[in-house]
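Sequence, please.
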């Protein structure tokens, strides 16, 4: 794959192949990048997915994505490269007090978000079984570790299983959203995850 080059201010130079390009900022430094990069490798003929260098809490991630998007758009207007087609942030609900502000800022700044409650390990659990009851992050992490046979650093076999079982995990995540809607629970109640939305954009990278 030909990597996007960077100009003096971080702008990317135009590419001959107009594959859709997505920039993703992740809260974690290991688990999320490994998982997303696996999907990128599978669909790299259709899409380019880059992982942002900055990692942090929800609000800090959204601010970093917003600033990068605004900078890229300014450089694009000056003819110095091209902005990414989509900017995403992937983070957990966990115990972040800044979450409501992060979600609001993302909406105002055209930043897409993929949020898991309590954490991304719930998304991994859904690849293997239903999870209808609420749980804390430690329970989700322990369950994912047992099901995948690894911890934060996802093994090749774990990544393969997550790819293979994506459709059923997505179906279970969507069912959780319907459950929360049906019983009047707030959006993104525990348990819930919409990481599948980002994966679908990578898999079906049409404008």
């Amino acid at each position: 794959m030909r990597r996007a080059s960077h100009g003096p201010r971080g702008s990317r130079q135009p590419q001959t192949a107009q594959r859709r390009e997505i920039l993703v900022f992740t809260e974690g430094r290991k688990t999320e990048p490994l998982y997303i990069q696996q999907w990128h490798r599978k669909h790299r003929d259709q899409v380019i997915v880059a992982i942002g260098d900055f990692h942090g809490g929800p609000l800090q991630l959204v601010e970093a994505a917003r600033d990068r998007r605004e900078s890229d758009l300014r450089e694009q207007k000056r003819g110095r490269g091209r902005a990414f087609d989509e900017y995403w942030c992937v983070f957990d609900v966990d115990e972040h007090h800044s979450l409501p502000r992060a979600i609001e800022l993302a909406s105002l700044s055209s930043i897409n978000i993929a949020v898991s409650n309590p954490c991304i390990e719930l998304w991994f659990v859904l690849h293997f079984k239903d999870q209808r009851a609420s749980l804390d992050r430690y329970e989700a992490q322990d369950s994912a570790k047992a099901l995948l046979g690894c911890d934060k650093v996802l093994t090749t076999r774990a990544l393969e299983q997550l790819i293979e079982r994506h459709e059923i995990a997505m179906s279970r995540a969507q069912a959780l959203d319907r459950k929360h809607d049906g019983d009047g629970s707030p959006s993104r109640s525990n348990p819930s995850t919409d990481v599948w939305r980002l994966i679908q954009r990578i898999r079906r990278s049409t404008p």
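Confidence is low (pLDDT under 50) at residues 1-11.
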